[in-house]
Amino acid sequence: MDIPPTATLIPTGDAWLHADTVIPPRPGGVVVFAHGSGSSRHSPRNRAVAEVLNRAGMATVLADLLTVDEERLDADTREFRFDITLLAERVFGIVDWLRTTPATSALPVGLFGASTGAAAALLAAAARPQTVQAVVSRGGRPDLAGAALSDVRAPTLLLVGELDEVVLRLNEEAQAAMPGVAELRVVPGASHLFAEPGALEQVAGHAAAWFDTHLRKTDHMLR
After folding, report:
1. Which residues are 6's β-sheet partners?
2. Which residues contact 196 (CB under 8 A, 6 or more apart)?
3. Given the DSSP bridges, would you call strands 182-187 and 156-161 parallel, antiparallel or unpaired?
4. Which of 97, 135, 134 is nearest to 119 (CA)?
5. Would strands 59-63 and 109-114 be described as parallel, antiparallel, or unpaired?
């Protein structure tokens, strides 16, 4: 049975962020979703992936990386959606909050980034190498993480649609710049939003398998 999300306010360095958290019994890890390009915790695609991860025994945190006022301004100006530094700082804050929260403090942490949120997730992985143990990018822009790619040690899965040719090329270049485990998987027949029948299900399945391998392995090593 699906577990309903719990509405949560997460303190970060400069803002309180609205989030929906789900913690199943005996979770194998916790995955933070980093949205991008004007999206939010209500993203139907990310929520669908989160539900698959929950059924696979992973806790999830879907948080708005912008405050309500910032979202309103961004809707008019797009001022914040490409502010990768700001988005990454908010992800840092969520990761640090997980370490101080009793229900998640002992869980290995993974990051799931979409679009520009993927760059924020990779910056967070580079800045918190002892905490972030795995990253998955869905149709992401890892290239926007810039020089920080060379500092990412967490095993990273890059998922790109076959028809998303420009983003596919950018992901290939980002993969080459990452020194650790970085795997690129192309979803056949899928475009940028993975709206084609069965495409998002493939994304969710790949993500669940990646986190099950890399987060649960870390969890067992810590016992």
Report:
1. 21
2. 189, 190
3. parallel
4. 135
5. unpaired
Residue 38, pLDDT > 50, answer: yes
pTM of the model: 0.92
Per-residue pLDDT, 214? 95
Contact 125, 47 (CB under 8 A): no
Q: Which residues of 47-80 are buried (b: 16+ CB within 10 A; e: fewer)?
A: eebbbbbbebbbbbbbbbbbbeebbeebeeeeeb
Give per-residue pLDDT as tens, 149-161. Answer: 999 999 999 999 9
CB 144 within 8 A of CB 116: yes
Strand partners, 156: 135, 182
Rg (CA), the chain: 16
- Quickly count: other Cβ atoms within 10 Å of residue 205's Cβ: 13
Nearest-angstrom CA–CA distance, 11 and 14: 8
Domains defined for the chain, CATH in brackets = 6-222 (3.40.50.1820)
CB contact at 8 A, 161 and 191? yes
For the residues 102-121, what does the mean pLDDT come to? Answer: 95
Measured CA to CA in angstroms, residue 5 lies from 2, 46, 187 at distances of: 9, 14, 29
